[in-house]
Write a structure and sequence with these properties.
The chain has 331 residues and is α/β, with parallel strands linked by helices. The chain is built from ten helices and 15 strands. Strands 7-6-5-8-9-10 form a six-stranded parallel beta sheet, sandwiched between helices.
Length: 331
């Protein structure tokens, strides 16, 4: 299993959508898996899907989408709330500034990565791809232009710059005279943020994060609701560890449930559990079945009913249904 999940994490880090195809064979102690890359799959698969071809041939298609990354150039007063709100909105945040007093983890405890380097040189330290959102909030026009000149040939999901309308227009005209492609220049969002009349740094940060969420979720005039992404569990599976373990994956949900499709949990034969599919009585029942799968191998699909009288009887706060795949993993 290790090579499959290691490759999965590598592809996601490079901004690629990936599907893991799991063959559901009853007579296998460990299910076979293969990776399908983005250019080989349907762009309309946004949740796990079990395909039954008949005659005992079934497989699970599980889509994985890269973690959205927010790269902020400039560590000033707007960057502080921007990093915090970006993290809370689900972005992996990198902050860049050339001043040690502004680029440090003490100032940005919510940031995943803090880079203290000149804006130009920092581009060598960042992996840009189509899951990266770039926000330019530096302390001066010269630095803004330096960032834009270096980002124009990169593949990104979004490029935004804080500015007035007049300054934005002049900046784009300057880039055009320098020979940059007009089509790429037109993709620059400036002034940045949704127009909500924001004045304070917090309000401006709110307007920017709201625009990033809108771009991510509705960038193609269609609302995207990606499966949950448990990076820590995937990293655990990819380790060179031969300890037997069972992997639990939520493959479908209906109604009100604690976690959505894609959420994962690992159960070890020594009782250690990593990750969660929502906790409570339902999770406890899954753990019991997972230990049984660990002993006999193979897999099972368990339905967890949290509706009506069943939920009331067990004291559940939710009122939906989850189907989970429990499978034995051997690295």
């Amino acid at each position: 299993m290790k090579p499959i999940y290691k490759k999965l994490l590598d592809e996601l880090e490079n901004g690629h959508m990936v599907i893991i195809k799991t063959f559901l064979k009853d007579n296998m102690n460990t299910l076979e898996k293969e990776i399908i890359l983005e250019d080989e799959i349907s762009k309309e698969l946004f949740e796990p899907l079990i395909v039954d071809e008949g005659k005992g041939s079934k497989y699970l298609l599980e889509p994985f989408f890269p973690e959205p990354k927010l790269v902020i150039f400039g560590g000033g007063h707007i960057a502080k709330p921007l990093v915090e709100y970006g993290t809370r909105a689900g972005f992996s945040v990198t902050i860049v500034d050339d001043r040690p007093s502004f680029a440090n983890t003490g100032r940005f405890p919510y940031a995943n990565k803090v880079i203290c380097e000149s804006f130009e040189k920092s581009f060598e330290l960042i992996n840009f791809n189509k899951s990266v959102f770039v926000v330019i909030v530096t302390r001066g026009h010269r630095h803004d232009l330096d960032c834009l000149r270096n980002i124009m040939d990169k593949q990104t999901a979004y490029i935004g710059m804080i500015s007035s309308k007049r300054r934005a227009r002049n900046t784009k005209e300057q880039l055009l005279t320098e020979g940059f492609n007009k089509q790429e220049i037109d993709k620059i969002v400036a002034p940045i943020g949704l127009d909500i009349g924001a004045i304070t740094p917090d309000e401006i940060a709110f307007s920017i994060i709201a625009q990033l969420i809108k771009k991510r979720r509705m960038g193609s005039e269609k609302k995207y609701n990606w499966p949950e992404y448990d990076k820590e569990v995937l990293m655990e599976i990819s380790l060179n560890d031969n300890t037997p373990k069972a992997l639990v994956t939520i493959i479908s949900t209906k109604g009100s449930v604690p976690r959505k499709a894609g959420a994962k949990m690992l159960i070890y034969n020594n009782g250690i559990v990593k990750g969660s599919i929502g906790g409570g009585c339902s999770e406890a029942e899954v753990i019991v079945n997972a230990r049984r799968i660990l002993k006999q191998g193979g897999y099972m699909v368990q339905c967890i009913d949290m509706t009506g009288d069943i939920a009331e009887e067990k004291g559940m706060a939710c009122g939906g249904i989850m189907n989970v795949l429990i499978e034995s993993l051997i690295n």
